[in-house]
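Your task:
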Amino acid sequence: MSKYTVIGCGDIGFRVSKELLQQGHQVQATIHYEEGTKVPQSVGIETIIANFDYREDVPDLPLHGHKLFYFMPPQGGGSSDYRMLNFCQQLTPDNSPSKIVYMSTSGVYGDCGDTLVTEETPVNPQTSRAKRRVSAEQQLQEQAEKLGFELVILRVTGIYGPGRLPLSQLKKGHEVLRPEDAPRTNRIHSLDLVQICLAAMERGKGGDIFNVCDGEESSMSHYFMAVAEMYQLPQPKQLSWSEAEKGMNPLTFSFLKESRRMSNRKLIETLGVELKYPTLEKGLFACRTIS
């Protein structure tokens, strides 16, 4: 039995924790608020209430020798991840995990146009949220070098899956770019992401970075249209680029300014992962039957 810590027990953190428990391991996980502890505790996860926004609200975390998954996103605002800073202040030579798998984002690459993005592509964050992710990666890399633990970074594309589909947005009349104007990107099904996280902990080596995606290129417009068709919802209104720039929510529009065609070759070959949902069609169909 190994000891695991999960920082950020949201959807992915909860699913990873449950799988580890079923394998017979001991799992502790941090929860932002007390009301979020009931479900994890009901399946046997040891919960720790920890608000990483403020250093004084982070309790002492026993981490020495643990295998640790870090799923907590950065705070909103700024170009540095202060939640990661508050986490790293917990790490000492006497309280250091043996290995960390950090879930980052493909947004660290910025806009790559039609270039195929591999793990060798330099980071080029162009938004504040992407800069916060680069900040988090760098902080962990510094700690790994200083304290000697293994660090594996997963640069994850758009996550979809059961409970993570844009059904409410579509019902509210969410608008999309015309397909011919929409940039290309990739996705990953949440259940595939869970198995990838576990494989990265088991087989990833210190210093490894993996792009995490399903290998199928599409666009945000195609995604919303496919979800609408699958769930028999009205198709979203299509906007030209100029119409979207004038009328679309600025945060939503910012996601549409960047194109990233991601390669998952290293992920498949190095970790030996066989994706259950290598296409959006298979992944959406499965969302109707799993929870």
Notes: The chain is about 35% helix and 20% strand. The first helix runs from residue 11 to 22.
